[in-house]
Amino acid sequence: MVNYIDLTDAQRQLYLKALISVARVDGQLDEEETNFFTQVAEGVGLDPQLTQTYLTDEAAGLDIGSIPPMHNSAGALILRDLAAMAVVNNEFTEKEEALILEIGKAMQFSEEEINEFLDWAFMGLQWQLKSRALLERYVQSGVTR
């Protein structure tokens, strides 16, 4: 199974650019997101200065046309994390889905394969929302035992 350490430097850069693009698709990045991406970049071994460039200069961001074919475990790792990123805020927008489809197709995954990752993320979102609803039910009823 592939791990972040197994990614090449170019794949790590693509990974970070793609994550930032998915987070940015429905608005600007806030300070919490910027800090998160700085930590992600550090965790995968990217230069902090390069990371700041990706975060502050949209022109330095993801260029779909430059994504190489990656129909392999590295590409699957990237798609999985993009799908997870899309639902991290307990929402899943059409813009996020469209961008992930575009990235996945550029990596040469089929729409069916990409949808497997998106379905996985959507199921996770449903699981999170149900969990919150269960806990909130007891907060609202005043049960403190």
List keywords for this structure.
mainly alpha; TerB-like; 67% helix; 0% strand
Could you please describe the fold and organization of this structure?
With 145 residues, the chain is mainly α. 67% of the residues lie in helices and 0% in strands. The protein contains six helices and no strands. It is globular and about 55 Å long.
User: What's the architecture, going by CATH?
Assistant: Orthogonal Bundle
Class based on secondary structure composition and strand pairing: mainly alpha
CATH topology (fold) name: TerB-like
Radius of gyration: 17 Å
Q: Count the helices. How many?
A: 6
Largest sheet: none
Low-confidence stretches: none
Please report the first level of CATH classification, the CATH class.
Mainly Alpha
Order of helices and strands: HHHHHH
What gap, in angstroms, lies between the N and C termini?
44 Å
DSSP strand (E) fraction?
under 5%
Using the alpha-carbon principal axes, give the shape: globular
Q: How helical, in percent, are the residues?
A: 55-70%
Q: How confident overall, as mean pLDDT?
A: 88
Number of strands: 0
As for the number of domains, it is 1
